[in-house]
Amino acid sequence: MKYLALFLTTFISTSPFASEQEQQDECHSLPVSDRVIDSVYSRVNTRFCQPAVWFDSFFVDERIDQDSRAGSIVRWTNDFTYVEGTGYEFQTRLKARLHLPKVNKRLKLIFETDEEDDVFELFPKSSDDVESTLGLRYDWIDRDRASFNIKLTAKPGIEGRFRYTYPVNEDLVVRLTQKVYQKKRLTGESTDIDMDYSFNQDFLLRWNNFAKYEDDIKGWEYGTGLSLYQYLSETQAITYQASVAATNRPYDYVSNSHLSVTYRQNIFRSWLFYELKPEYNWPREENEQREREARATLRLEILFQNI
Q: Residue 71: what pLDDT?
């Protein structure tokens, strides 16, 4: 825990927090050239000029880029991580989604890693390398509250994703995401239920819940987690996260508990970001004792987007 305390103290004391005037920036809008608007979410979440859209845009949440019809995104992340008791690790990932204007507005060329969804950032697994794949995605349905797309990958694999967003009131939005996929000989499905509650323009609480079934293990993985987003300025934000993941194979047990804080800032150029993320995990493998793992990650990210 001493590494987490030292890391938190360092980045909070050196981070240029927003002034009172910056915290009152109207709608928390980014400059027009960098604006990322979810074609579905932007129409249904009208509370305080859509604070959830701002947070998802700033943290490049998949709710933004998966439901946006037009445009392209290229995201290159480089993670430098110190793991207590293990040492230093490095991981680089490239995610791209390119609009094909001369073919069809609904068709996109994609390059991404497995389990790219941001829900798995909240429920981290082992640090094993993940494979990247090239594919095509077709946005079949794009309506005010519902979207449906089909993805074909070169692994080979096929995935269908349906998402429905329902604004309960001006403060609360509920989102259901259902996926069915086939990867080589593996068949699976996942169900995600998210709830967003907007306290005000500076704070947004998100409750994530997921259940996932794959026929290779013939069992379920499931979890629940909370994320509290805090707005600092147009170039700074913080996320506080806590989650618990479990499985029922070969018996029911908690596979990991997670606590983390992520500070993200846009620096020098509109396409350059860095993140500081101290975290603590309590993972457990089958028939083994629960472990403790402290991690501290510096992420450098190059982001080009035109959504």
A: 64
Query: For the CA atoms of the chain, what is the radius of gyration?
Result: 19
Q: What is the pTM of this model?
A: 0.76
Q: What is the DSSP string of the chain?
A: -HHHHHHHHHHHHHS-PPPHHHHT-GGGPPPGGG----TTHHHH--GGG-HHHHHHHHTT-HHHHHS--S-EEEEEEEEEEEETTTEEEEEEEEEEEEE-TTT-TTEEEEEEETT-STHHHHS--------EEEEEEEEEEE-SSEEEEEEEETTTEEEEEEEEEEE-SSSEEEEEEEEEEEETTEEEEEEEEEEEEE-SSSEEEEEEEEEEEETTTTEEEEEEEEEEEEEEETTEEEEEEEEEEEE-SSS-EEEEEEEEEEEEEE-SSTTEEEEEEEEEE----TTS----EEEEEEEEEEEEEE-
**Is residue 235 very low, low, confident or very high in pLDDT (cuts 50, 70, 90)?**
very high
Instruction: Please check whether residue 106 is in contact with residue 121, taking contact to mean a CB–CB distance below 8 angstroms.
Output: no
Distances from the Cα of 224 to the Cα of 164, 198, 207, 229, angstroms: 19, 19, 7, 17
Residue 291 has a CB neighbour count (10 Å cut-off) of 12
